[in-house]
Amino acid sequence: MFGENHVMFQRGEKHFPPARPLFTQNAAGGCVPICAAELTPAGEVKWIYLIHAHGGNNPRDVAAWAFNPSHVYVCMMVYSEEASLWGATNLQDTFFEALDPGNAIPDANATLIYGPHKSLVITRKAMVAVEVSY
């Protein structure tokens, strides 16, 4: 089963199992690939989501989609060759606010990947992978 490529100007939709893996490539400059998933306590994937976000192309409110926002996990990726670590950790508010305007997703469920990465993948089992680009 092949994955589904999400390019820069797509907003993304949630995909229900058995979803195809979702991926985005060539995320550099101001791009911030973001993926999310809702999992039950038993590990069942309810849905997955991916967006190749950048200024003006904000993610959807994934917390509103959730059966239980405390079971939503979010991963954002910032490319270290274009952004400082300070910028990666302090300038992503617009994206977080779009993902979860009510602040319902626990902070512990959010991960920031910072490094020489340009590609992000979320599998149908909600596993996340990046491609290292040196």
Structure description:
The protein has 134 residues and is mainly beta. The protein has a single domain (4-132), classed as 60s Ribosomal Protein L30, Chain: A (2-Layer Sandwich), CATH 3.30.1330. Helix content is 13%, strand content 35%. It contains three helices and eight strands. The protein has helices at 62-65, 85-90, 93-99; strands spanning 4-5, 22-24, 32-39, 45-53, 72-79, 110-115, 117-122, 128-132. The strands form two sheets. A four-stranded mixed sheet has the order 1-2-7-8, with no helix packed on it. A four-stranded mixed sheet has the order 4-3-5-6. The model has no long low-confidence stretch (mean pLDDT 86).
Which sequence of SSEs, written as H and E, runs from N to C? EEEEHEHHEEE
Tally of extended strands? 8
Can you tell me the CATH architecture? 2-Layer Sandwich
Instruction: State the CATH topology.
Output: 60s Ribosomal Protein L30, Chain: A
What does the radius of gyration come to? 14 Å
Average pLDDT score = 86
Low-confidence runs (pLDDT<50, min 5 residues)?
none
Main-sheet strand order equals 1-2-7-8
Number of domains: 1
CATH class: Alpha Beta
Report the sheet-strand fraction. 35-45%
Structural class: mainly beta
Main β-sheet, in a few words? 4 strands, mixed
